[in-house]
Design brief:
The protein contains eight helices and six strands. The protein has about 190 residues and is an alpha/beta fold. It folds into two domains: about 70 residues, Orthogonal Bundle (Arc Repressor Mutant, subunit A), CATH 1.10.10.10; about 100 residues. About 20% of the residues are buried. The C terminus is likely disordered.
């Protein structure tokens, strides 16, 4: 088998993960967890057997057990490591973008920040503000948009539209990060 035939696609890897975590799963259970047809599940299982990632053991007339082979366990491990490293790199890129946004706000004279939300993004913003070591910076966390806040509100919460609060100086960090380029940043900061 050549290298391209031996690698796992996303569905196959998802199935390897499920089988690796649940020894007692049957094809119907696997089909439901993958949200695909029973026939497609059967085809994926057979393909993984041919590739050497799983083994099928007939327990009795009606019960079948699916197990990862050492090759399947190793592939699950390696792909999990690669996914973790990719996630860490992504978080680093987000932190760099956040630092850039906060630095620009600081350069515009902002010293007080309110972090709206309790998401992972809010945690990253708090870390960035704490580590930037800018003179006189103060920040706190809030769960609701304030009436007349002192400083800029950094929106880290989904379904909060900055346009609904034209009287508040705020930056929607979710939209900023999603845009990949912060060219329109200056326009979104309003007093």
């Amino acid at each position: 088998m050549n290298e391209s035939q031996d690698t796992l696609n996303e569905r196959e890897f998802e199935l390897v993960n499920i089988i690796g975590g649940e020894l007692g799963a049957n094809q119907r259970d696997l089909s439901k967890k993958l949200d695909i047809s029973l026939g497609m599940t059967n085809m994926l299982i057979r393909r993984l057997v041919v590739k050497g990632y799983i083994r099928i053991r007939q327990l009795d007339k009606k019960k079948t057990q699916y197990m990862l082979t050492p090759k399947g366990a190793a592939e699950k491990y390696h792909k999990s490591i690669r996914y973790t490293l990719k996630t860490i790199r992504s978080i680093g890129l987000i932190r760099n973008q956040l630092n850039s946004i906060i630095k620009r706000l600081y350069d515009l004279g902002e010293r007080q920040f309110l972090i709206l939300g309790s998401s992972d993004l809010a945690e990253l913003v708090e870390l960035s503000l704490g580590q930037l070591q800018c003179m006189g910076v103060k920040f706190s966390r809030i769960e609701q948009m304030p009436g007349r806040p002192q400083g800029v509100v950094l929106i880290c919460k989904e379904q909060v539209d900055a346009a609904q609060y034209p009287e508040i100086n705020c930056v929607d960090l979710i939209k900023e990060l999603a845009s990949q380029n912060n060219n329109g940043f200056e326009k979104q900061v309003s007093n």
